[in-house]
Write a structure and sequence with these properties.
By secondary structure, the protein is α/β, with parallel strands linked by helices. It has three domains: 280 residues, HUPs (Rossmann fold); 103 residues, Four Helix Bundle (Hemerythrin (Met), subunit A) (Up-down Bundle); 51 residues, no CATH class. Helix content is 47%, strand content 15%. The strands form five sheets. It has a four-stranded parallel beta sheet with strand order 4-3-9-10, sandwiched between helices. A four-stranded antiparallel beta sheet has the order 5-6-7-8. α1 links the parallel β3 and β4. The longest helix has 27 residues. It is elongated and about 95 Å long. The two termini are 41 Å apart. Bound molecules: adenosine monophosphate (AMP) and zinc ion. The site of adenosine monophosphate has 17 residues, from α1 and β9. Zinc ion binds next to loops.
């Protein structure tokens, strides 16, 4: 049974989707005015693991991640660079999608953009106004927080506490300091859309309410984001969606811990960040994902070069294992023995770990134990059957590659066609004959030719094996 910590109820709950096997999941995406940092990446990778684990369990997940492509920060950047905002947002949308791919994050089913959903956004604001949750002052439309009884439930705070503690928009026109913008009147020179309240553009919170409703329905299963979004962003989304749709909004709220630098949240505004692309230039995607997966997703995590280097080093064990098992596979056949190591019991442990609120740290430990135990088994047994190696690989493909993304079989040559394999083997055989006939020039020529194709030969007492190198 999968249990999930729900920020709304502040406890672990049994995961029961509204309409199984469908699961509808929404993740807050980027505001596209710059490259994203490795702190953002932590949240997106965490959501990716959650999604992939649900898929592993057989759920049919529809995953939506919004793109905020109209915002003060984008306008500012466009002004600084003397560019059109569309040029700026498109440039960073491309970079965002490219970086997600490099991080091994599975493509979302939909990336709704605010500028492409103006009708939905305006429709929702109008509904809120009709229902008396919104008021218009001189072309600025605000949400009246005092009308929504449950305001503060997600963040677990009373309205009075929120008023004193929070960073809320300062605007003299608002009735209450916590009221927030649904529609912002356009200033001179700003991009704008027409509305019944005049020219303007939407506030940030209403985007997510309107677009999640459009793509996932009025009520859906999971809404995720970093911890900083609990208040006010997600609190406001609840207020908007529940008031306008008069339906329950989200069943499970998942929030991810911050990536910190020297105990401080990594953020654009503090300037203490590394972009995801910078980090990926130095470390492999598997190392980055291992670094995140070793920690509990809701807790804070410190980032440093030393810690990432340690993750990269830890990964060596997995990489050597992949190399080892690929070599063993080429040597084995189905007539061999099946050693006494129950692969399924490790998969059960992996499932138990992940079922406990996505305990990836525990799941990673299971993978490392498994690898260690398979290595020992290989050392202690002779002539192991291909069937055994296949089952080892299949489990790792599902769990370590498919869900966690901390391993990669491809680099080492998985995916080469049978024709290529038999070609390589015939070259190896030809070289063996050449060597036997003391025709070392030909033997070396064959070795060099294979090397130029990215295939490295390794001679040992048992014969010659090969490895695909990039
Ligand atoms: P932003 O572009 O700041 O709205 O952030 C996009 C996503 O990344 C949101 O889900 C944020 O909560 C998340 N995020 C931002 N900074 C961090 C951080 N330092 N650690 C983890 N998640 C973060
Ligand atoms: Zn959002």
């Amino acid at each position: 049974m999968l249990s999930v910590y729900n920020t709304l109820t502040k406890k672990k709950e049994k995961f029961e989707p509204i309409n199984p096997p469908d699961v509808k999941m929404y993740m807050c995406g980027p505001t596209v005015y710059d490259f994203f940092h490795i702190g953002n990446a932590r949240s997106w990778i965490s959501a990716d693991i959650v999604r992939k684990y649900l898929e592993y369990k057989g759920y049919k997940v529809t995953f939506a991640m919004n793109i905020t492509d109209i915002d003060d920060k984008i306008i500012k950047k466009a002004n600084e660079e003397n560019e059109n905002i569309i040029v700026i947002s498109e440039k960073y949308i491309d970079a965002f999608l490219e970086d997600l791919e490099k991080l091994g994050i599975k493509e979302a089913d939909v990336y709704p953009k605010a500028t492409e959903h103006m009708d939905d956004i305006l429709g929702m604001i109008e509904t809120l106004e009709e229902k008396d949750y919104a008021y218009n002052i001189n072309g600025n439309v605000f949400y009246d927080v005092s009308k929504f009884e449950e305001y503060g439930r997600l963040s677990g705070k009373k309205i009075e506490e929120l008023e004193t503690g929070a960073r809320v928009e300062v605007n003299e026109e608002k009735r209450n300091p916590l009221d927030f913008s649904l529609w912002k009147k356009a200033k001179e020179g700003d991009p704008y859309w027409d509305s019944k309240w005049g020219r303007g553009r939407p506030g940030w919170h209403i985007e997510c309410s309107a677009m999640s409703c459009k793509h996932l329905g009025e009520s859906f299963d999971i809404h995720a984001g970093g911890n900083d979004l609990i208040f006010p962003h997600h609190e406001n989304e609840i207020a908007q969606s529940v008031a306008s749709n008069e339906k329950p909004f989200v069943k499970y709220w998942l929030h991810f811990g911050f990536l910190n630098i020297e105990e401080e949240k990594m953020s654009k505004s503090l300037g203490n960040f590394f972009t995801a692309r910078e980090v990926l230039d130095k470390y492999s995607v598997e190392a980055v994902r291992l670094f995140f997966a070793q920690a509990y997703y809701r807790g804070p995590l410190n980032f440093s070069d030393e810690l990432l280097a340690a993750a990269q080093k830890g990964l060596e064990k997995l990489k050597n294992f992949v190399e080892n098992i690929n070599v063993e596979l080429t040597k084995s056949n189905t007539e061999g023995t099946i050693p006494d190591l129950d692969v399924k019991s490790y998969e059960d442990k992996f499932i138990n770990a992940m079922n406990d609120d996505f305990n990836t740290a525990q799941a990673v430990a299971v993978i490392f134990d498994f690898v260690k135990d398979v290595n020992r088994t290989i050392a202690e047994n002779e002539n192991i059957s291909t069937t055994f190696y296949d089952s080892v690989k299949a489990f790792l493909e599902r769990a370590a590659v498919g869900v966690l993304g901390i391993m990669n079989f491809e680099i080492e040559g998985e995916g080469i066609s049978e024709r290529d394999m038999s070609y390589i083997q015939s070259m190896i055989d030809k070289r063996a004959v050449a060597k036997k006939e003391k025709n070392y020039a030909l033997a070396d020529e064959i070795r060099d030719e294979l090397k130029s194709l990215g295939i490295e030969l390794k001679d040992s007492k048992e014969g010659t094996t090969y490895k695909i190198v990039k």
